[in-house]
Write a structure and sequence with these properties.
This protein is of the alpha+beta class and about 130 residues long. Helix content is about 35%, strand content about 30%. The chain has one domain: D-amino Acid Aminotransferase, Chain A, domain 2 (Alpha-Beta Barrel). The radius of gyration is 15 Å and the shape is globular. Bound molecules: pyridoxal-5'-phosphate. The site of pyridoxal-5'-phosphate has 12 residues, from helix 2 and strand 6.
Length: about 130
């Protein structure tokens, strides 16, 4: 097995462990955070993710480890056409919980060709749970 295949297999195995753990706890998907600071949101399962906070629609900016999904691109294009404020920027898990606590978090959804637009009903981070 080449070094690259070992690395790919390693990444895949790691994602399976997290998915299994999430499933056991009643969750459908894993919310992936960045691998360096472990606080910035990247994707959810095999979907890109969007947060509507007040009137700003936020999706993580493409850092290299986030797949530039065609559905993500379509949503950004539509949002711009409809005059929705859309930001591609870093968004931390703490910012999401703070927005929730402040009553500013209005919608969370994942996007992908298979999932189309899938609403997120609940997020857990450590012992904090967010219900929409
Ligand atoms: C990791 C990951 N992120 C996001 C997406 C969504 O991409 P798209 O909108 O192009 O289907 C996919 C789709 O397979 C994916 O595997």
């Amino acid at each position: 097995m080449s070094e690259l295949s070992k690395e790919t297999a390693g990444n895949y195995a790691a994602s399976l462990i997290a998915s299994e753990k999430a499933k056991k706890e009643g969750y459908a998907q894993v919310l992936w955070l960045d691998g360096i600071e472990r606080k910035y949101i990247e994707e959810v399962g095999a979907m890109n993710i969007f947060f509507l906070m007040d009137d700003e629609l936020v999706t993580p900016n493409l850092t290299g480890s986030i797949l530039p999904g065609i559905t993500r691109y379509s949503i950004i294009s539509l949002a711009k056409k409809w005059g929705v404020t859309i930001s591609e920027r870093k968004i931390s898990i703490d910012e999401v919980f703070k927005a929730h606590e402040d009553g500013k978090l209005k919608e969370v959804f994942g996007s992908g060709t298979a999932a189309v637009v899938s609403p997120v009903g609940e997020i857990r981070y450590g012992d904090k749970v967010f219900y929409r």
